[in-house]
Amino acid sequence: xxxxxxxxxxxxxxxxxxxxxxxxxxxxxxxxxxxxxxxxxxxxxxxxxxxxxxxxxxxxxxxxxxxxxxxxxxxxxxxxxxxxxxxxxxxxxxxxxxxxxxxxxxxxxxxxxxxxxxxxxxxxxxxxxxxxxxxxxxxxxxxxxxxxxxxxxxxxxxxxxxxxxxxxxxxxxxxxxxxxxxxxxxxxxxxxxxxxxxxxxxxxxxxxxxxxxxxxxxxxxxxxxxxxxxxxxxxxxxxxxxxxxxxxxx
Length: 250
Known about the structure:
Blueprint: E1 4-9, H1 29-32, E2 34-37, E3 47-52, E4 60-62, E5 69-71, E6 84-86, E7 91-93, E8 108-110, E9 117-118, E10 132-134, E11 139-143, E12 156-158, E13 163-167, H2 172-175, E14 181-183, E15 188-192, E16 205-207, E17 212-216, E18 229-231, E19 236-238
Parallel strand pairs: 4-6, 5-7, 6-8, 8-10, 9-11, 10-12, 11-13, 12-14, 13-15, 14-16, 15-17, 16-18, 17-19
Antiparallel strand pairs: 1-3, 2-3
C-alpha cells in the first residue's frame, strides 16, 4: 500500500479543515485508511500533516486561504484521481513539481497568490481535461509553454503578475475553442495579436494590458458576441478600422 506524508508549517493555529474536499463523499479514515491529522508543535509553529494511504480516493483538494508555508510535495503525483487542486492564497515556495502532470484528470488548478518560482512545466500540456489554470500573483519566470495552448478544454488561463514572456500563437482560438477568460495583464507577452481572434466564440474577458503587443487591434474582436471585457491599455496597439465597435479599456 502506497503511503506519503506531507508536512506544511503554518504561521497561524487557525486551520479550516472543512475546506478539504474528497470528491462527492467524505472518506471514513477508519474504513478507507485515509488519515488527515492537524497536530500543533508549539504555539508559533503548528503543522499540517496529511497521511494518504489510499490516494485514489481524493478527487478534490481545497486548502485555499490558509497560511501554509513550504513546498508543493513531489508525491502529489500519487493523487491519480485528483480533479480539483486549489491551494491559492498561501505562502507556498519553490517550483511547480513536474510530477503534477501525472494527475491527468485535473480540471482545475489554482496555485495563485503565493510565492512560487521557476518555470511553468511544459508537462501540464498533457492534461487533456484541464479547464482552469490559475497561476497569477506568483514569481514564475520564463516562456509560457506553447503546448498548454493545445488543451482544447481550457476555459481560463490566468498569469497576472508573474514574469512570463511569450508571443500568443496565431492559431490560439482554433486550439482553445472553449476559452472564456485570458488574463495576461502586466506580463512580458509581445508580438502581434492574431487576426483570427473571431474564432474565440466563447471569449468573454480578454485582459492583455501592460504587455509589449504591437500592431493594429484585430477586426475579429468586433465579432465576438460574448466578449464583455476587453483590456488592451499599456501596449503599442493602434486602431485602423471603424469596424471595431467595442470599447477598449485601459
